[in-house]
Amino acid sequence: MNEIVGNFIECEGRYAIVAGRFNHFITDKLIEGALDVFSRHGISDSDIDLVWVPGAFEIPFAVGKLIRSGKYDSVITLGAVIRGATPHFDYVAGECASGIARLNVESDIPIVFGVLTTDTIEQAIERAGSKAGNKGADAAMTALEMVSIARQIGD
After folding, report:
1. Catalytic positions, please?
2. What are the backbone dihedrals phi and psi of residue 22, each rounded to the nearest 5 degrees, phi first?
3. Burial class (CB in 10 A: 0-12, 13-18, 19+), 106
4. DSSP secondary structure letter of residue 132
5. Which DSSP state fits 130?
């Protein structure tokens, strides 16, 4: 049996982060976590592009453009959709997730879903660097590992 396991050695390359500006006080912390992971694994700032979009709903559009550019080894999506008193949350969170999932299947590079979908602001804060860790850092770790796996599998 041959086993393919991701590592953090064969993960150099170009990365993009697509970040939703809405709830930026959360997204900013997610970005900090992702950039810290990249730095710790030898990915230089010049190999990372950060693309800001208005909100989570617009993230799939930007990801699609980045994929088609052929410049990146992986794209990370970061943002925060926090439930309110209307069904708006369900539409935005659902369409963002399904758009990213569709692009991930169609793409030759890994797309990492790091968009928080929480019921409360407190839950978002917990996932952006306090009690529940930093989901931006987790997304960067996933991107590094998936780039390694993609390279091992090849074309």
Report:
1. 88
2. -60, 135
3. exposed
4. T
5. S
User: Measured between alpha carbons, how far is 91 from 97 in angstroms, rounded to an integer?
Assistant: 10
Q: What digits encode the pLDDT tens for the residues 98-112?
A: 999 999 999 999 999
The string of pLDDT tens digits covering residues 54-79 is 999 999 999 999 999 999 999 999 99
Domain range summary for the chain, segments of one domain joined by +: 34-147
| Strand duo 15-20 + 74-82: pairing | parallel
| Topology of the domain comprising 34-147 | Rossmann fold (3.40.50)
Specify the amino acid at residue 116. L
Neighbours of 8 (CB within 10 A): 14
Whether residue 26 contacts residue 128, with contact meaning beta carbons closer than 8 Å, is answered with yes
Which of 61-75, 81-95, 137-151 is least confident?
A: 81-95
* Residue of 108, 98, 99, 42 whose CA lies nearest to 73: 108
H or E element: which one contains 122?
helix 121-127
Query: DSSP string of 85-113?
Result: SSTHHHHHHHHHHHHHHHHHHH-SS-EEE
